[in-house]
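Re: your question from the hallway

Yes, I did run it. Sequences:
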Amino acid sequence: MNKVYVVGLGPGGAQGMTAAARTALEQADVICGYTVYLDLVAPLFPGKEMRSTPMTKEVDRCRMALELAAGGRTSALVCSGDAGVYGMASPLLELAGEYPDVEVEVIPGVTAALAGAAVLGAPLGHDFCIVSLSDLLTPWKVIEKRLRAAVAGDFILCLYNPASRHRKDHLRRACEILLDAGLSPDTACGWVRNIGREGQTSQLLTLARLRDAQVDMFTTVFVGSTRTKIQDGRLLTPRGYRA
Amino acid sequence: MNKVYVVGLGPGGAQGMTAAARTALEQADVICGYTVYLDLVAPLFPGKEMRSTPMTKEVDRCRMALELAAGGRTSALVCSGDAGVYGMASPLLELAGEYPDVEVEVIPGVTAALAGAAVLGAPLGHDFCIVSLSDLLTPWKVIEKRLRAAVAGDFILCLYNPASRHRKDHLRRACEILLDAGLSPDTACGWVRNIGREGQTSQLLTLARLRDAQVDMFTTVFVGSTRTKIQDGRLLTPRGYRA
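Structure:
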């Protein structure tokens, strides 16, 4: 059987992986991925063949995994977090039609929104949105529209890719849009860096202070809804059972 | 140490659980939860003490887990999917301040949005919202506001709790709001029932047809953004790498 697994590894090392992810990686002849993610799984599968491409070569990585499977070897393409949320499942499945003999199975994983929320408390206890602040593939105007819509809907908001080396001010710009859209500067917020990895750090703070927070590409940011609160050192959005 | 774990079990049986979830359940002296979820984990931990409360008694279940820990036993409170997304982490942490000697650790899991998306393809490849259609704890007016905001932001939309015995028409009402808000009747949509469990079924369809779909409380529904498409039998939202 010609098969590709697209596998979400979860937030960190082996403890964050599902049993299904581990099984898929065991069954794969070759594991493909960005070097950083291969380094996470290599110690679990000593001797397994690993193949990487540079960070920005997402489509090449998908094609590599599909070509391996078309050639008769079972391959696994790994991503951190979930396979589908800004992950490799979408670009790989876009190409999969060119490989009619290859079966694709997507193995979901714990995305940073869920893992980061667990570190901070339970901010995602009610309806929420996830928005990436990376404008590499999305015009900033679309990002701004989504931030304003999140405020209009009183959603809890989880922000991915709040900064990079070349986009140091995206979180500040996003916070200014949220404030301009009517969100209170006292809105309960938080961030987590290096979720589930060495050097995990986090902070709870108001939206006014979040605007000036120093974050990087390994940080996930949470902006509360009007019901989110900081209580006993945790970020919480009540579901409403006690109301 | 007086400890409560709040554990997200993921979508189905043992394969959907993370290693961290399994470790937490091993360390617990008592596992608490709604009967249906206890039945999922009981075969994995033969002989382990299990305690349940009826479905609607969420606050009682939280208090049971906290009381056990306060009395010196390590407890685990389990939920399906993630611990935080409409799960037990939020109500338990709201009560945790009353038990200052009890440490709480939230163990995240794969929520239905991620697991259902993996079944259908990669619908969550770009910014998305999750909205519950249950109006037990949320006024329908708030739900409607969020649906309209999701359309305004051109988000992919994942709907939880699209129906129950007493709310048979909520998905139809939601679809009519989405159409009224300007979403095309041709929008690519899908649903998955019994994700990761026996009897898993799914369907891809347009928004016009989703309005008349028969769904139940074990169904998770996906409504695409303007970029989502049905391709090679899969629901896909491109991330944009090829654009």
